[in-house]
DNA sequence: GCGACAG
DNA sequence: ATCTTGTCGC
């Protein structure tokens, strides 16, 4: 698939932050499709110093059967700074997406979207670059506060940051730690939550991310 | 001001 | 993210 060119690469924290502030204006949070024929999971595995492998696995949105798998090897493109995490993985993830022969209808990203210090996490960034609907799924809390959701599958509570709801803590399986869902691009919070719950059919994390995680760790 | 902080 | 054993539960 085609992905828009990454803007001049930031050399400093201030430059990276200003790119986020500029691209944030392009995020569409008003909604979009509510059904997705092809769903992609994205993840990155780190080895050694700055080496990494990005993996994308596209699943049939109905059966959740894998349709295509691609990887891209590279190096971390930025130091790790909370809030600028996306700049580490973006080049390798974009390379992997460009190697897909099919175009997904939804990107399920490992990390946050709107629930971010400047409202522009990895999921938003990938959504804007591709133009595709995207959702962020975090494994640990980041910004904002929330009450613990009920123990049953599907229970959720809002994540509130600076007076606004920016995501949801969602219990995807009974008795597991919640995952943190936030909008990336072209998706409502309701649809994002519904999709993450549906995709996390058997385990805590959504199937697309589990497949991508496995592929990034065991490339073939 | 200080600490904490997605992966 | 990664470095790592044992242990509990399905």
What report would you give on this structure?
With 220 residues, the protein is α+β, with helices and mostly antiparallel strands. It has one domain (13-217): 2-Layer Sandwich (archaeoglobus fulgidus dsm 4304 fold). It has five helices and eight strands. The chain has helices at 13-23, 86-98, 122-130, 189-199, 207-217, and strands at residues 38-47, 51-60, 66-75, 106-110, 134-138, 156-161, 164-170, 179-185. The protein has an eight-stranded mixed beta sheet with strand order 3-2-1-4-5-8-7-6, with helices on both faces. The radius of gyration is 16 Å and the shape is globular. The protein starts with 12 loop residues before the first helix and ends with a helix. The mean pLDDT is 96. The structure holds two DNA strands.
